[in-house]
Amino acid sequence: MPSRNILVINCGSSSIKFALVSEAHSQFPLFGIAERLGSRDAELRWQRGGDKDSLMIPNGDYRVALSQLLPLVQAATGGKLHGIGHRVVHGGERFTSAQRLDSEVIAAIRAIAPLAPLHNPAALQGIEAAMSVYPQLPQVAVFDTSFHQSLPEHAYRYAVPEHLYRDHGVRRYGFHGTSHRYVSHRAAEIAGLSIGDSSWLSAHLGNGCSTCAIVDGQSRDTSMGLTPLEGLVMGTRSGDIDPNLHGHLASTLGWSLEEITRVLNSESGLKGLSGLSNDMRALEQAREQGHPGATLAIEVFCYRLAKSLAAMSCALPQLDGLIFTGGIGENSPLIRSKTVTHLKLFDLAIDKEANARCIRGIAGPIHKYGHTRILVVPTNEERQIALDTLALLN
Ligand code: ADP
């Protein structure tokens, strides 16, 4: 069968990230971003082969950006595009797998929007624009939450009054599911195990960070919850805090709910702790020069990550390996080694040379011989979305 091409689209509140995924090639033939949509500085930037290019699209919206993208996609595929895969953050309890988009699925994504007020409306704008620009193509939604719909009830329920769950959907949903699913399959391949008969801990460490317990190819627990704020220390997000912090800040500082939400989402995490940056590279450099805030931020990040992994282990019958992925997980030997130092009881130990070697897209084992497996596995959410899209076209 000739190789097929899928355009993968990930819409933010004023941006579209896109990647053309070809079955036959591990590299994306075309990828890029349309940014600042709706503003005078709206711009489409892309990379094809080694060449970079850009186009200003003043006041261009999602539709304009996708129309401008069309000829680029046609050139890169020789006119053979087989479908479009959309990343949708929240699928609620309704969607346990990818869905071919039709009016009913779109209405359901809209109904779930109160759970992801920043993300689902943007995805819907992208879906509607893509349907009008590419009306003849099948389109598929792939949800960040759907992988975690296999969590048992004791893992997804909060200890709050039952009607909040029943009537308002207050429960743990989890995110980064596409990444945890992709890397756990790759880890099983690398280890020569069957994904259907193996157990993994996975740490996705990017700007957002989460852990996941994966048993026989299914998510059994994950660190993010109702929203992507729960769990680990992240770039600008606090992760777990005492829920009474809200009341405390309101009564002692007079902060509004909006202000507290903004601080916990945008001013906390690595940025808040270090007082310097949300970027792990910058923090590692500052730590080298003895910056106390950067040093502390890294210590807290790794300790909290290790604690979360230890907690996730409650969902596993055995541990076939720990997976590191995401920008930090794939590139930071320091963070991997500091985290593993806190997990000695799991018989985890790092091989220094292998750890230093596995950066910039290099996958592989980094554990000491005779110890529990630790793997670095670069994530590829775009490829997973394309695979899910293709599976629904078959
Ligand atoms: P996103 O969640 O936005 O997709 P990424 O997965 O690209 O983000 O991860 C971004 C994070 O990865 C940033 O904190 C960045 O500093 C970190 N990172 C990238 N390269 C390195 C590196 N060589 N060493 C340490 N951290 C790195």
UniProtKB/TrEMBL annotation:
Give the residues the record marks as binding ATP.
K17, H204, L205, G206, N207, G208, D279, M280, R281, G327, I328, G329, E330, N331
Q: Which GO terms describe its molecular function?
A: acetate kinase activity; ATP binding; magnesium ion binding
Please describe what this protein does: Catalyzes the formation of acetyl phosphate from acetate and ATP. Can also catalyze the reverse reaction.
Which pathway? Metabolic intermediate biosynthesis; acetyl-CoA biosynthesis; acetyl-CoA from acetate: step 1/2
Site annotated as Transition state stabilizer: where? H176, R237
Q: Record's Gene3D superfamilies?
A: 3.30.420.40
Q: Which residues bind Mg(2+)?
A: N10, E381
**Organism name:** Pseudomonas tohonis
Indicate the principal place this protein occupies in or around the cell.
cytoplasm
The Swiss-Prot or TrEMBL record describes its family as follows:
Belongs to the acetokinase family.
InterPro entries found in the cross-reference section: Ac/propionate_kinase, Aliphatic_acid_kin_short-chain, Aliphatic_acid_kinase_CS, ATPase_NBD
Q: Where does substrate bind?
A: R87
Q: Report the transmembrane regions from the record.
A: none
User: What HAMAP family does the record tag this protein with?
Assistant: Acetate_kinase
Q: How is the cofactor bound?
A: Mg(2+). Can also accept Mn(2+).
Q: What is this protein called?
A: Acetate kinase
**What gene is this protein a product of?**
ackA
Biological process (GO) annotations? acetate metabolic process; acetyl-CoA biosynthetic process
Q: What cofactors does this protein use? A: Mg(2+); Mn(2+)
Record keyword Transferase present: yes
Keywords in alphabetical order: ATP-binding, Cytoplasm, Kinase, Magnesium, Metal-binding, Nucleotide-binding, Transferase
Q: What is its EC number?
A: 2.7.2.1
